[in-house]
Specification:
single chain, 231 residues, alpha/beta, TIM Barrel, 37% helix, 18% strand, globular, binds D-xylitol-5-phosphate, binds zinc ion
Length: 231
């Protein structure tokens, strides 16, 4: 699959959100970080703001829910208009039930794994998910350093997804997303490991021209995939 870029508005100007969302219209997905100061130590924004973001965004919204009780809240974000809802495995009582609820609402169901959570917890249920997010930092804050020790986890999800497609168990592989410390220096390694959706906050909004940063990330990541041989 072609590499997709998902700018995180955590690094945008929250007083000029509509303008900053328009600035990333050449990207594939708008990454909106929802934090509740319980699941993670930080607090960002919630349902009413996501509802408005969806209305003004020129590209589909993926809500990354770093919150407790996603069993209740994840479907609310689907109803608010997110095209994709990403919830944390660690916070979920029943991850498969959440994914089924999301799909029943017509949105993409995505499960996220913190750095300490092994890929094996979701590999038997891959068919339930449209995307798997392998966190490459501890969730909670933008601008942290990429964790290279997450590369084997990306490779493990990629291998399992490709094997499920090869065996006919799946018709299409879930997208594999990475989030945290993604920049032109780190994008090649995650793309070569098998990630196909790259979230970037500071590497997009920290640049003078976000559209140029998106294009640069896309082309350097795509180049690393074309050079790899496991697809
Ligand atoms: C962190 C968030 C990320 C954050 C990434 O918990 O989930 O989406 O915005 O920021 P960068 O790209 O700056 O590491
Ligand atoms: Zn995020």
């Amino acid at each position: 699959m072609a590499i997709q870029i998902a700018p995180s508005i955590l690094s945008a100007d929250f007083a000029n959100l509509e303008r900053d969302i328009a600035r990333v219209s050449t990207a594939d997905l708008l990454h909106v970080d929802v934090m509740d100061a319980h699941f993670v130590p930080n607090l960002t924004l919630g349902l009413p703001i996501v509802e408005r973001i969806v209305q003004v965004s020129p590209i589909p919204v993926d809500a990354h829910l770093m919150i407790e009780n996603p069993d209740y809240w994840a479907p609310r974000y689907a109803e608010a208009g997110a095209a994709s809802v990403t919830f944390h495995y660690e916070a979920a009582k029943n991850p498969v039930a959440i994914a089924r609820d999301l799909r029943a609402l017509g949105v993409r169901a995505s499960v996220a794994l913190k750095p300490g959570t092994d890929a094996s917890v979701i590999l038997d249920d891959l068919k339930e998910f449209d995307m798997v997010l392998v966190m490459t930092v501890e969730p909670g804050f933008g601008g942290q350093a990429f964790m290279p020790d997450m590369l084997p986890k990306i490779e493990a999800v990629r291998a399992a997804a490709d094997a499920a497609v090869a065996s006919g168990e799946l018709t299409v592989a879930p997208w594999i997303q990475v989030d945290g410390g993604i920049a032109t220096a780190t994008a090649p390694s995650v793309a070569a490991a098998g990630a196909d959706v790259l979230v970037a906050g500071s590497a997009v909004y920290g640049e003078p021209f976000p559209a140029d940063a998106i294009a640069a990330l896309r082309s350097i990541a795509q180049g690393a995939v074309s050079g790899a041989h496991h697809h």
